Amino acid sequence: MTDGKSEGAFLTIGELSAELGVPQHILRYWETRFPQLRPLTRAGNRRYYRPEDVALARRIHQALTNDGFTIKGVQKLLAGGGGAPVVPAAKLTEVKAKTPSMSPDVLASLTKIRDQLAAALTA
């Protein structure tokens, strides 16, 4: 939590941005993509994130950065549709390196299936 503030305190966009390690414009972008994320706005459009907004922003950040979800996937996840994570290409390279004696045909087939699934998720 931000230094000097209690657990239930409202956070400004700058404080939340620093806590999550993302720029402020990313938080404003998330507000346009996730209708559940609605901070209070005061005079001059100053944003104040309630504890539930902070928890939601943390969940979005976790899903996007650590769980491999896309924006669309997180939207489905938050809407209750589940959403499937997208496996980054770097992770697939690690899996290929650890996979013992897989025939090139099987590997090509699995790669094709992965690409089809990724295309279906983005459609």
UniProtKB/TrEMBL annotation:
<dbReference type="InterPro" id="IPR009061">
    <property type="entry name" value="DNA-bd_dom_put_sf"/>
</dbReference>
<protein>
    <submittedName>
        <fullName>MerR family transcriptional regulator</fullName>
    </submittedName>
</protein>
<dbReference type="InterPro" id="IPR000551">
    <property type="entry name" value="MerR-type_HTH_dom"/>
</dbReference>
<dbReference type="InterPro" id="IPR047057">
    <property type="entry name" value="MerR_fam"/>
</dbReference>
<dbReference type="GO" id="GO:0003677">
    <property type="term" value="F:DNA binding"/>
</dbReference>
<feature type="domain" description="HTH merR-type">
    <location>
        <begin position="10"/>
        <end position="80"/>
    </location>
</feature>
<dbReference type="GO" id="GO:0003700">
    <property type="term" value="F:DNA-binding transcription factor activity"/>
</dbReference>
<dbReference type="Pfam" id="PF13411">
    <property type="entry name" value="MerR_1"/>
</dbReference>
<keyword id="KW-0238">DNA-binding</keyword>
